[in-house]
Amino acid sequence: MKNITLLLEKIQALKSKEPKLRNRDLAQRLGISEAELLSLYAGQNVTILNGSWKNLISQLHQMGNVMALTRNEHCVHERKGIYKNIEFYDGPHNMGVAVNPDIDLRFFMNEWHYGFAVIMDRPKGKKLYSFQFFNKKGEAVHKVFSTPKSNIKAYHVIVEIFRAKKQTPINPTDKTPYCRKVEEPDNSIDISGFQQAWLNLKDTHHFFGLLRKFGVSRTQALRLAPEGYTTELDKEAVIRMLQLTAERNVPIMCFLHSRGCVQIHTGSIKNLKVFGDWYNILDPKFNLHLKMPSIKQAYIVRKPTEDGIVSSLELFDETGDLIVYFFGARKPGIPELEEWKTILLEVQPNATSIA
C-alpha cells in the first residue's frame, strides 16, 4: 500500500472539503480500492474479519432485521429484512441462496475475498453497524447494515467469532484489469440455431446457458433475437414503467448484480424521487438508486417458459454490462401478470401489441 500517513492526510483533506463523499468515491480519488481504504482504520472503527464467509452469512439471522445492500457502478439496491433460509451448494461455482420474501439473494462465493466489520458514526450520537465484503480487487460485492430493529449484541458476537488475528492494513488488492470477452461478429454466430433455441426455452434461468452455448454477449443476443421477442426503448422508458407500476400498485421484481451477489426485490413500489442524476425508489423496506446518465441501452425482453411468455425491462451501460432489470412479480407455475404486460405495452413508443 502507498505511504499510510500520506494517505490518511489526503483522506482528511478530501473529507474536509466534501464531508458527504462516500468511501467508494473516496477510494477512487486516492487511487486505491475501497477494501484498502477501510483497512487503513483497522483497530479503530474497522475490524478485519477472517474465516468462512458462508458461516458468517449463516449467522446473520441472529441480528434480526437488517438492510442488505448490493450495488454496481450505476445502481444501488437496498432491502430490509432478516437473513433466513440460507443454503449453499457444492461445485465449482460455489453458489448459495437466501430465499425469503424480503431478503432474496444469490451468492457467488468465489468472488468473496475480504470481509470487514465497520462501525460508522451517525447524527445525534447514533452508530451504524455493518459487515462489508469485497472481491480480490477490493470491490464491494455485498454489504449488510444494522437498522433500529437490529440486535447489536448479536453483531458484536459475530464480529468476535470472525475477528482476524492480524489487524493491519491489507496489501494492495489485485490491480489487473478485467478481461472482457470480445464479442464475436454476428456473421460467425449460428443465428438460426440461436433463435430456435430461444423459442424452445422453458425457463428464464436457462437464458444464461443459451448465451454461453452460442457464444453471444447479452446485448448481441437481444439484437439477434427472434422477431418480436425484443424491443429497444429509450432510456426514459424505465421511469415511465416505474411511475405506472407505482400508480397502479402493480408488484414488480427488481434484480441487481454485483460480481459476487444478485439481490432481488419483489413487491409494490410507491415513493419515487429524483436527486440530480439519480432516479430513486425510497420506500420503507426497499430503496433503489439508479444513475440515469449511465443507461445507454434499454430493452423489453420476452422469453418463452412453461408458464407462457415472461417479459423483462433491462438496462445496459455503454460497455453492454447489465445495470438492473425488472419483471412483473411472479413465481414458477404462475403466468405473467396481465397488468405488467399492459405497462410494458404503454412504455413502448408506437407499440400496438405484445407478443
SSE arrangement:
Layout: H1 4-17, H2 23-30, H3 34-39, E1 46-48, H4 53-59, E2 66-71, E3 75-81, E4 86-88, E5 95-98, E6 104-108, E7 114-121, E8 127-134, E9 140-146, H5 152-162, H6 191-199, H7 207-214, H8 218-224, E10 230-233, H9 237-248, E11 252-257, E12 261-267, E13 272-275, E14 278-282, E15 286-291, E16 297-305, E17 308-316, E18 322-328, H10 338-346
Antiparallel strand pairs: 1-7, 2-3, 2-9, 3-15, 4-5, 5-6, 6-12, 7-8, 8-9, 10-16, 11-12, 11-18, 13-14, 14-15, 16-17, 17-18
The order of strands across the largest sheet is 1-7-8-9-2-3-15-14-13
Beta-strand content estimate: 25-35%
Give the termini separation. 55 Å
N to C succession of SSEs: HHHEHEEEEEEEEHHHHEHEEEEEEEEH
Total strands? 18
Unreliable stretches = none
CATH topology of the largest domain: Heme iron utilization protein-like fold
Q: Quick check: average pLDDT?
A: 94
SSE-based structural type: alpha+beta
Can you summarize the main beta sheet? Answer: 9 strands, antiparallel
Helix fraction, binned, reads: 25-40%
Walk me through the structure.
There is one protein chain. The protein has 2 domains: 4-81 and 113-162, HemS/ChuS/ChuX like domains (Heme iron utilization protein-like fold), CATH 3.40.1570; 187-346, Heme iron utilization protein-like fold (3-Layer(aba) Sandwich), CATH 3.40.1570.10. By secondary structure, it is of the alpha+beta class. The chain contains 10 helices and 18 strands.
